[in-house]
Sequence to fold (233 residues):
Amino acid sequence: MTEWITLSETLYGEAYVDELSDLLRQHDVKTVLECGCGGGHVLYGLAKQGFSCVGVDDCAEAIESANRRYTHPNLRYLHRNWLDTPDLGTSDSVICRGNSLSCVASWDGRLDHKKAEDAIRGSIKCFSDRLREGGLLYLDTTSESEIQSGGRTIQVDSGSFHLTGRTKNELETRTRRTWGDGEIDGERFSVRSISYLITPDDIIGSLQACGMHTVWNPHLRTEPNYQIICAIK
Ligand SMILES: C[S@@+](CC[C@H](N)C(=O)[O-])C[C@H]1O[C@@H](n2cnc3c(N)ncnc32)[C@H](O)[C@@H]1O
Fold:
């Protein structure tokens, strides 16, 4: 988990938070719920910019790290499954980014299309329920171009963080594999993950099923890894 948190912090720094803040402000957002907040650094950046933020993640290690490293008066974290958040009421914006949605549909070596489709649809319905009328939903997933080309290479060299890896997408089996080897502060590590390949069209279909018909793909210069999909409730 630590490697994923460091990778995310390396890829999504202040410039990303600034662009995301601008997008949120354009839609009158003051309160943000992040579903799958991981180590919390993006939400922390938003809290510093004046947004009132709540982050939920069902990984105890991620929430523990967020509470240790990224606290702010505008921000609280909950160790929670995002499917179990009715008591949180509604926010101006719900964000689920860094390809977090694919985690809910991961499977342990066996492909179960039905389970994955239900998990994605159920999650998007939950996000919609947590939004006020007129609120902004921000999601991301593997881009159409990366799906078409079958995958991409990953090369990250920033400070003492180095990673070389690849993604491989198989549309027929809906399989997305990510693997890489790297070094943090001179310590070697390896990352391997397998998840259900969610297409932008899957997400758009689920959004429309929730009655969210204003759907578009904002382009953020600082988001080269995933396709962003936004919708208004
Ligand atoms: C790929 S990580 C991205 C984390 C963070 N958004 C970032 O970009 O650094 C996905 C996160 O979603 C969390 N997650 C997946 N399914 C979840 C669920 N149903 N409820 C809460 N958290 C979930 C995982 O624990 C993990 O921290």
Q: What stands out?
A: The longest strand covers residues 131-141. The chain has a mean pLDDT of 94. Residues 8, 36-38, 56-59, 62, 81-83, 97-100, 103-104 surround S-adenosylmethionine (CB under 6 Å). Residues 147-190 form one domain.
